Predict the 3D structure of the following.
Amino acid sequence: MAATQIPVVVLESSNGRRAMPVLGFGTASNNLEPEVLIEAVLEAIKLGYSHFDTASIYGSEQTLGEAVAKAISLGLIASRDELFITSKLWCNDAHPDLVIPALKKSLQNLQMAYLDLYLIHWPISGKPGKLVYPLTEEDLVPLDLKGVWATMEESHRLGLTKFVGVSNFSSKKIENLLSLATIPPSVNQVEISPYWQQKKLIDFCKDNGVVVTAFSPLGGSGTSWGSSHVMESKVLQEIAEARGKSIAQICIRWVYQAGATVTVKSYNKERLKHNVQVFDWELTEEDVLAHVLSKGREGTKGKNGVCGACHLTDEERERCAS
């Protein structure tokens, strides 16, 4: 299969413009053998993927860096500059004096001189020290958002990252951040799927020049915080059968048509191939409306428009979303 030309969105900052592919390869996975991830990354590059998403808490930065180095040695890419690499600041490092050391540690893991995008992983802060997941109430401390963001901006000015952004931020959190930022966030990465639609958040971010990237477009099936509702949806199955597509392809296309970019996670060659085959066809208004009227939700999962990926209690989620 020839490499697919994945569409891009253009991010802009004082460091210039950069094209970000709208489909990224996610690397969050528990107990994944490094060799499996390396081979999947190499296969993904052959298929046309060039946006790779990692995080300090995933434990995949070093392996991703090894995969990129191997891709260069094999001649699949000429240099790291052909890729778009995203990583994230974990909560225990979400302190003004720890942002740049944490970013430099990520770069060391990746064996890279810069990131394309660096995100605050959650709008909460944990006690400094060892990275902890999942977080408990005892781990949480007040987040100095102004101080942390100022240091994120400094990392951008130092050239350690081309762009800065956030993850799991509600509209209210984004609004607060925009009021104090000199460099606004380029991206907000949040959970979105046909069952967790986040339309108001997507619209708010669009109105304020923030690109939304969706994770878990298939509903997080198989995770401790997700569900199988999306993959077991009869409506989505009917649409998929009528279109000659998989449910996964329907979900990825749905998110893309909803106005968001998306990161998907698969280490299976065939699924990697299928996931990029979503840009030469469209869902009809009838397809979209059928699902909205059936089961799709505007954003009622948990409380206050935050997902369950961090295992927070209701009280902690309240703090996260407020």
About this structure: The chain has eleven helices and twelve strands.
